[in-house]
Amino acid sequence: MGRAQETFGKKENEKKRLKKKNDKEEKREQRKANAKPGQSLDEMLAYVDENGNISTTPPDPTKKRVIKDEDVRISIAKQEDMEPEDVVRLGTVAFFNDSKGYGFIKDSQTQESIFVHANGLAGGPIKEGDRVNFEVEMGQKGPTAVRVKAAAATPPPAPAAAK
After folding, report:
1. What structural domains does the chain harbor?
2. Which of 20, 39, 81, 123 has the smallest C-beta neighbourhood within 10 Å, fewest atoms?
3. pTM for this predicted structure
């Protein structure tokens, strides 16, 4: 049976492999030549100065500051109890596709666009431009509007009393 033909790609891959091997060997030889056997511990140490920079010189003992153990905090600070947000939000339907059953509501307070699916509708169908009340829950890809209902129409302002 004949020998497998060497293609251009195979030759190039073999050249790259040999070059990588030779480079690795050269680097190893350079490390051996530049190595300083028997370095003392002081030569291998690095120090951090008062500004947080790494240096080879030891710190000045006159600039030493004493820090109390109780001042060092290793854990996460306690979070204050947050007030619950207003769970029911008000917004306007910016886009809704009835045939596909999804759309977006623009929150009137934060002006962010929130995804809404037909499964999240609680008060019947909605269409673009409708004012709606909704709650936000985290979905698979971000915030999702749920329990969406048409907002109650605001009553017109009362007429001013005649004097």
Report:
1. 89-150 (2.40.50.140)
2. 81
3. 0.43
